[in-house]
């Protein structure tokens, strides 16, 4: 009898562990804003785990132990300059969040590409909105408080999250049920904020080489911060030579002017793309982030 019970418990644990690795499609039927995908356009993952050519966006779930779950969930958006997705840092952060009782979902979003999209400039934002809609829709099933769903973005993923947080009324998906698409809080790690010549590749990948002044303004998210922008935690390294630290400084200044709850940490060193254990970051930012979540009721 004991052997049978032990085997049953093992199978349940194995099923739960396996389920955490199974991507959950963002869309039940057709993917919006999509062209017919060419036969040779297939998702690719290289030896370093960098993903390109995504046509089926999905959530990759990481759930905490049930007895430690807090009800808070964070959707994590990888960076990669809107050219690829780098998941390694996100997985490290997701597992650390689980240890704190927080559910995490890495969002494998589509990368802007005229080959597969009718309007590439809104493709990633559509997937961000679909992701938070799906998590709130299944919140009860996953043990999540729908009023404690935040977003975290790394690098270009930070731009995407800041766009979702500052332009909540710009709905680019079908939302007949009028789901709440506003994240309850944001965490931005070395984010792209300002669309200027200093970061041409990220800008060009999303809105082209010669965008209009109106489009540049729309995608410079520091220009759209209002009193309804969610509470925001930000971290950036002063020696970041990929995304200048002025991006974070500008967004933080806009948050202060709008009286939005915000906390910013500028690390002396750390470069670009750090997670928890890279030289320079020393995981201090994560401990401060966890304290900030507690302070704000998440």
Question: Secondary structure elements and their pairing?
Answer:
Layout: H1 2-19, E1 24-25, E2 44-45, E3 50-52, E4 58-62, E5 73-77, E6 85-86, H2 88-99, E7 103-108, H3 123-137, H4 139-142, E8 149-154, H5 156-166, E9 186-189, H6 200-207, H7 213-219, E10 232-237, H8 246-257, E11 262-267, H9 284-295
Helix pairs in contact: 3-5
Features:
eight-stranded mixed sheet; 9 helices; 11 strands; three-stranded antiparallel sheet
Question: In a few lines, what is going on in this structure?
Answer:
The chain is built from nine helices and eleven strands.
Description:
- Residues 63-254 form the BD-FAE-like domain.
- GO terms for molecular function: hydrolase activity.
- Residues 1-19 form the signal peptide.
- Keywords: Hydrolase, Signal.
- This is Acetyl esterase/lipase.
- This protein has 298 residues and is of the alpha/beta class.
- It has a single domain (42-295), classed as Rossmann fold (3-Layer(aba) Sandwich), CATH 3.40.50.
- The chain is built from nine helices and eleven strands.
- The strands form two sheets. The protein has an eight-stranded mixed β-sheet with strand order 1-4-7-5-8-9-10-11, with helices on both faces. A three-stranded antiparallel β-sheet has the order 2-3-6.
- The relative contact order is 0.12.
The first-level CATH class name: Alpha Beta
Characterize the overall form: globular
The helix/strand order is HEEEEEEHEHHEHEHHEHEH
Binned strand content: 15-25%
What is the gyration radius calculated from CA atoms? Answer: 19 Å
**Spatial separation of the terminal alpha carbons:** 42 Å
Q: Low-confidence stretches at least 5 residues in length (pLDDT < 50)?
A: 5-18
What is the CATH third-level topology name? Rossmann fold
- Which CATH architecture? 3-Layer(aba) Sandwich
What is the spatial order of strands in the main beta sheet?
1-4-7-5-8-9-10-11
Biggest sheet layout: 8 strands, mixed
Total number of β-strand segments?
Answer: 11
Count of all domains: 1
CATH homologous group name: Alpha/Beta hydrolase fold, catalytic domain
Estimated helix fraction: 25-40%
Overall pLDDT? 91
Structural class: alpha/beta
Q: In DSSP terms, counting alpha (H) and pi (I) runs of 4 or more, how many helices?
A: 9
